[in-house]
Amino acid sequence: MRHDLSGRAALITGGARGLGAGMAAALAGAGAAVVIADLREDLGRATADALGQTGAAAAFVPLDVTDDASWERAVKATIAELGGLDVVVNNAGVELAGPLVDLDPADVRRMLDVNVLGTALGIKHAFRAMRPGGAAGHGGAVVNIASVAATTALPGIAAYSATKSAVDRLTRVAATEAGKLGYGVRVNCVYPGAGRLGEATDLADAVVFLASDAARFVTGAGLPVDGGP
Ligand SMILES: NC(=O)c1ccc[n+]([C@@H]2O[C@H](COP(=O)([O-])OP(=O)(O)OC[C@H]3O[C@@H](n4cnc5c(N)ncnc54)[C@H](O)[C@@H]3O)[C@@H](O)[C@H]2O)c1
């Protein structure tokens, strides 16, 4: 089934490359206008331009997800560019692996910053923009990209797993806050992983589903997208 996001405006963090670029393409394919928000300006612009050449409404906006003021500017620019904001995908993330005996505090701080703080700020600014009276003001959907590492123990990625478990908890609490405070914003997360070799579109289609009205009664959920064990 194809989900229709016509008339919706979506911002994807870390959309310049990798899975985020696939999500941007899938959201655009479903009819959404998309902003790719990333640290990598060169790559982000090229990805947005390539999407634009397929006929999609796509633009690049610079964003450092760890910086509150950068979020404020990016959301403002997105609403100016797309005329609204209905979907935020908090995809930007870093994975720095290694056994606990070799733990590097700088690596852990970086993952806490990007994966945890970056996602929390993304939820904050999505809520501010989408809630009644916000600059976009029509409610919407937030999709956070966690990982199977949030729910299963795999050796060598302890700190990364901890940050992705945090993304999972942020999702659940954010969903209840949005519900109780009447924001009209659903918040869900996906746990990508590789039970079998997947395509970028396997994950991106799940993100499109959670962003769409087909998931209108789904909030505070975590969806494994890993092809099974
Ligand atoms: N690749 C996998 O198999 C896999 C599995 C599970 C979960 N994930 C998660 O999916 C997400 C995307 O993974 P990927 O493999 O495509 O990553 P990637 O490294 O290919 O791309 C990440 C993007 O995020 C951007 N980014 C990094 N820090 C940023 C910041 N501070 N502000 C804005 N943008 C920033 C990068 O510039 C890059 O474009 C991550 O959250 C990752 O943890 C990936």
What does this 3D model show about the protein?
The protein has helices at 18-29, 41-52, 68-82, 105-130, 158-180, 200-211; strands at residues 9-13, 33-38, 58-62, 87-90, 140-145, 185-192, 222-225. It is α/β, with parallel strands linked by helices. The protein has a single domain (9-225), classed as Rossmann fold (3-Layer(aba) Sandwich). It has a 7-stranded parallel sheet with strand order 3-2-1-4-5-6-7, with helices on both faces. Strand 6, helix 6 (200-211) and strand 7 form a beta-alpha-beta unit. The protein is globular. Nicotinamide-adenine-dinucleotide binds next to helix 1 and helix 4. Nicotinamide-adenine-dinucleotide (NAD) binds next to helix 1 and helix 4.
Summarize the structure.
With 229 residues, the protein is α/β, with parallel strands linked by helices. The chain is 44% helix and 17% strand. It has a single domain, classed as 3-Layer(aba) Sandwich (Rossmann fold), CATH 3.40.50.
Draw up the topology in text:
Layout: E1 9-13, H1 18-29, E2 33-38, H2 41-52, E3 58-62, H3 68-82, E4 87-90, H4 105-130, E5 140-145, H5 158-180, E6 185-192, H6 200-211, E7 222-225
Parallel strand pairs: 1-2, 1-4, 2-3, 4-5, 5-6, 6-7
Nicotinamide-adenine-dinucleotide is lined by residues 13-14, 16-20, 38-40, 63-66, 91-95, 114, 118, 145, 147, 192-193.
